[in-house]
Amino acid sequence: MSILRVSLIFLVSSFALQLVSSQICNKDDSATLLKLKRAFNNPPNLDSWSASTSCCWFWQGVSCDDNGRVTWAAISASNISGPIPPEIGDLPELRRLEIDVNPNLTGPIPASITKLQHLERLILAENSISGTIPEFLCNMTSLNYIDLRSNKLYGHIPSCFRGSVYYIDFSSNRLSGHIPASLMNGYGGNDTFLNLANNRLTGRIPRSFDNVNFYNINLSGNRLGGDASVLLGEAKFSTQIDVSSNRLSFDLSNVTYPEFLNELIISRNRIRGSINEQITELQGLGVLDMSYNRLCGPIPSGLWMRPYPSSTFEHNKCLCGTPLPPCT
Ligand SMILES: *[C@@H]1O[C@H](CO)[C@@H](O)[C@H](O)[C@H]1NC(C)=O
Ligand SMILES: *[C@@H]1O[C@H](CO)[C@@H](O)[C@H](O)[C@H]1NC(C)=O
Ligand SMILES: *[C@@H]1O[C@H](CO)[C@@H](O)[C@H](O)[C@H]1NC(C)=O
Ligand SMILES: *[C@@H]1O[C@H](CO)[C@@H](O)[C@H](O)[C@H]1NC(C)=O
Ligand SMILES: *[C@@H]1O[C@H](CO)[C@@H](O)[C@H](O)[C@H]1NC(C)=O
Ligand SMILES: *[C@@H]1O[C@H](CO)[C@@H](O)[C@H](O)[C@H]1NC(C)=O
């Protein structure tokens, strides 16, 4: 009886102890976060970040591992301004950093983040961060997801991203130069995401992209020339391809389309030739835009072809047939 009671008490108290210990926020991590809050001028959105509570349980946008080390920190839409302070590098167990939608946040990506050796996701989207995309990001071996969309980054894309990085969004910045051939090469998975839309990129789409399984690739709104057929072909697994508003110039006649495509946007280029019949085999193709090119010949019909609006095919050289006027 008493043995049972004792062991029951032991069980309950060790459970409570575990609960309590998992509530304790590491002192160094909590001090670092409070320094960040102060550097950002104590924004109202971070009111919950208070020295009197555990950062692991009560602080908005923060979570911890079982040892009370901070693994996730987010400061979103908080009207913070100025540069990201160097203290950001002092959260040694951080896996995911998210500082986004702060249009008055300026300055470069701080070098101190290279100290975050376990960082997997870096999300700095929709701020006003400037400078170049630093090469030191390539030295962060755990990093596999990088979202720097909608900032004021300029210069070339470093040619050092390879290996484990499977998600890159650098869209809506001021990046220039060529797309590096090594970009995302070496990652073998099917889930590769690349968005470089709305920059000032020039040159050609690298031949090496033939070896990358993009499930989503968006190169829209740049100054890219040459051939995009390296992204196409029925053996690919891509579901979304957008290369619109570039200067692409190649013959589409013999190009086939990835079987699982649901969005294909190639409008506003200088693409010539005809549309391959194989496109009628795509069951999932919901969004299609081939307008403003130099295509010619009959629009394939039948099988899975949807009733696309005429705007899908308008402003080409001599495409004809439904939904455009009949071929003569
Ligand atoms: C950015 O700063 C300006 C001027 O200091 C301020 O008026 C504006 O509210 C800030 N933007 C946001 C989104 O808070
Ligand atoms: C953002 O912060 C600035 C200065 O810190 C302040 O003047 C402005 O009112 C704030 N805007 C919003 C939307 O909170
Ligand atoms: C990357 O790491 C290597 C080896 O540790 C070092 O020599 C190099 O300077 C680092 N590069 C950057 C850009 O930090
Ligand atoms: C990619 O996905 C397809 C279909 O889901 C699968 O058959 C194929 O093995 C995958 N390839 C890789 C490299 O994961
Ligand atoms: C490609 O990116 C641009 C800019 O962000 C966006 O407007 C467009 O919808 C994207 N395309 C697809 C297919 O998602
Ligand atoms: C398409 O393929 C056919 C047959 O292989 C070939 O005769 C033709 O020249 C090719 N057209 C283009 C534009 O590559």
TrEMBL record:
It holds the Pfam family LRRNT_2. It is found in: Cell envelope. InterPro entries: Leu-rich_rpt, LRR_dom_sf, LRR_N_plant-typ, PGIP. It comes from the Eukaryota. Its main location: other. Keywords: Leucine-rich repeat, Repeat, Signal. Gene3D superfamilies: Ribonuclease Inhibitor. Residues 27-65 form the Leucine-rich repeat-containing N-terminal plant-type domain. Residues 1-22 form the signal peptide. Belongs to the polygalacturonase-inhibiting protein family. This is Polygalacturonase inhibitor-like. The lineage of its organism: Eukaryota, Viridiplantae, Streptophyta, Embryophyta, Tracheophyta.
